[in-house]
Amino acid sequence: MTTEPLQSFRKWAITASVMMVTVMQVLDAYNAVANNGVFVEPSLVRATVNQDGSIVKAQAGLAHRVLSTGVAQTITSML
To answer: Hey, which bits of 1-79 come out as E strands?
Structure first.
């Protein structure tokens, strides 16, 4: 019995799974691990400047726990 079709499928499955994740999703995962299990919504803008020159700070991203602290620390130790 040959394993060629199975080997071929494994390569395709790994490639497909990698392609289904965006760079932003990977960064979001690292974000949560780096913050001890708390996901903080990323923000690209720190502040804006009004026409009169006053600076308006952007609101902080929403944060919520997605991993326990222990799980985040375990993942960190494996990285």
So the answer is: 38-40, 47-49, 55-57, 63-65
